[in-house]
Amino acid sequence: MDAMVYRGKAWRFGVNVDTDVIIAARYLTSTDPAFLAEHLMEDADPEFAKKVRPGDVIVAGENFGSGSSREHAPMAIKGAGVSCVVAGSFARIFYRNAINIGLPVVECPEAVAGTDAGDELEVAPLEGQVRNLSKGTQWSSAAYPEFMRELIESGGLIPYTRRKLGLEA
Question: What's the CA gap between 37 and 116, in Å, rounded?
Answer without folding.
Answer: 23
